[in-house]
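A note from the maintainers: we've had questions about how concatenated examples are separated. There is no special marker in the raw files; a new sequence line simply starts the next protein. For clarity in this README we add a label.
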Amino acid sequence: MHQFAEDSPIERRVGDALTDREETVAVAEGLTGGLVAALLTDRPGASAYLDRALVPYSYDSLRELLALDRERLDAHGVVSEPVTGDIARAARDTANATWGLATTGVAGPDGGSAETTVGTAFVGVAYAGPWGSESSTTTVARYEFDGDRAAVRERAARQALRDLLAQVDEREGADADE
């Protein structure tokens, strides 16, 4: 699972940033099936920043574990920008974590459509600002990855961690400005 690792592994940089800020993350992975959590827990001391990881792989599990809205799932489908944002927020909020991280997508080799081809991935990152501050945010990005199922999943997992780190770094800059 280290085929696409960088010289300074993203999982180490994420762990360091969250530890330094004393923040936590909860992960909900459909597309990546636990790879984000596996990367995060490769590092000793991960319990300081990883609150929990869920792998809700069906509509029923999304509703049962994260209380996602049935009508919203019907209207948009799991592999969509709005639902990926919902999953990231639900992971964050049900865990009472600082950050929620979600992955959805189509790893292949089958299952794609004209709108969501094989290799499509969505990554959602949700931040919990202090109560009453109106500073909570959610971002969702869409990606297209090439490769077989394993490559798509690993690339998406690493991209999710890069997206999380970018948001943590951005938040750190915003907090320093306040």
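[label: protein 2]
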Amino acid sequence: MKKFWFVAVLLVFVLVGTAFARYGTPKTTPTAKTTFKRPIDYLVEKGISLEEYYTWRQSGKTFAEFLQNKNIKETDLRAEILNDRKAKLDQLVKDDQMTARERDAHLVIIEENLGRNWSKTEFGGQCLGCGTSGIKRMSRNGQGRRF
């Protein structure tokens, strides 16, 4: 009888330990929550109203066509956005809210997503390609595999 209880208790500990090892350990996630300005916010700073932009988008035209109509170069806007985001991530690294490795991973994701949906009339995700919708499709629970 003692042998049975010993095996039963041992089996329970093994099962609980296995479950905790699989589901109970915290995942490695970035320590800092980063929020960036949307590409539309950069246009507002240049004097373009949101109503004008939304009217343009509702007519079925793309963001790239809107930039072309307003004589704004896509490459200049992308460079401005990328430099702003790099500066913000560098500040988070300096403040010890993020590691350099996490910053580099964020930059790779930002460079891949920036401008992804600018040539589409309809797009998924958030904010013209600056969201995490691409990451969520590639990972489990939206955590991302790059961190």
